[in-house]
Write a structure and sequence with these properties.
Layout (H helix, E strand, L loop, with lengths): L9 E2 L2 H11 L6 E5 L7 H6 L3 E6 L2 H10 L6 E5 L7 H4 L4 E6 L5 H9 L5 E9 H8 L9 H9 L1 E8 L4 E2 L6 E7 L4 H4 L4 H11 L7 H5 L5 H10 L13 H12 L2
Parallel strand pairs: 2-3, 2-5, 3-4, 5-6
Antiparallel strand pairs: 1-8, 6-9, 7-9
Length: about 260
């Protein structure tokens, strides 16, 4: 087992790898892009299912070993690259599925990168820290509901499939992990947002300090009069907080105050 690099915890337990594979519904001739292929723990199983696999690994030594290991397979291509800079459509011109065992420290940037390509992605399946998974799927009103929840649910319908114990990995992390499936699309198509970048900046501001009300968080961008009028027009109370709103309500508030 190669030493841990880049925050990687390799899925060493074959039983857990098989359990994950069973949830992926991999079909022959599907196209799968694997993030953080490591030693090929899941690459081999995906390839055995008959899928075309593009295994992305940023570590040069691991990528070299993967090439040697998969040399006999014509349905596997090893891509030595940083997932944050990969041009997916240069790998394949067809829609593809994503599987990844994501380094914990870079989960959010990777998700944002994937959401830039949702038109080309059929589904996303990721192994991540359980704490982050809970935040991703949290509904309004829950303590874990925040900006990451709204971002992921804007683009996809996320669900936690099952938890994975530390002992399934080498080296074992200090936290429990989870397999998260994201089916696409999410609520994006129903919200009618014209400027998505500006909308996400608005959401970030709404959640800037969760203990504060929307009025307090939005005061750096809008006047008290604008905020009060927008809250009233959306049927929200003056003391409404971001964690209470669903995406449809955020979209309505954004339209009332930022697109007026």
């Amino acid at each position: 087992m190669a030493p841990q690099k880049l925050g990687q915890h390799f899925l060493a337990d074959r039983g857990w790898r098989r359990k994950i594979l069973e949830t992926l519904s991999v079909a022959e001739n599907d196209i799968w892009i694997e993030i953080g292929a490591g030693h090929g723990e899941m690459t081999e199983l995906l390839a055995e299912s008959g899928a075309r696999v593009y295994a992305i690994e940023t570590d040069t030594k691991l990528a070299e070993k993967l090439r040697e290991k998969s040399r006999a397979r014509d349905n596997v291509e090893i891509v030595e690259a940083d997932i944050l800079t990969v041009d997916f459509m240069k790998l394949t011109q067809e829609r593809f599925h994503i599987y990844g065992n994501l380094p914990y420290y870079i989960t959010s940037p990777i998700l944002r990168r994937l959401f830039d390509s949702t038109a080309d992605i059929a589904s996303i399946h990721i192994v991540i820290q359980l704490e982050v998974a809970v935040r991703i799927v949290a509904p309004p009103g829950r303590r874990d509901y925040g900006y990451l929840s709204t971002l992921c649910q804007f683009f996809a319908k996320p669900e936690i499939v099952f938890k994975i114990p530390p002992g399934a990995f080498a080296p074992p992390p200090r936290v429990t992990s989870a397999l998260v499936h994201m089916s696409l699309p999410g609520q994006r198509a129903t919200l009618g947002i014209r400027d998505e970048l500006q909308f996400f900046e608005f959401l970030q501001r709404c959640f800037a300090q969760k203990r504060k009300t929307l009025r307090n968080n939005l005061r750096e961008l809008f006047s008290d009069e604008q905020i009060a009028a927008a809250l009233t027009s959306c049927g929200l109370t003056p003391d409404a907080r971001a964690e209470q709103l669903n995406l449809k309500q955020f979209a309505a508030l954004y339209a009332a105050i930022a697109e007026e």
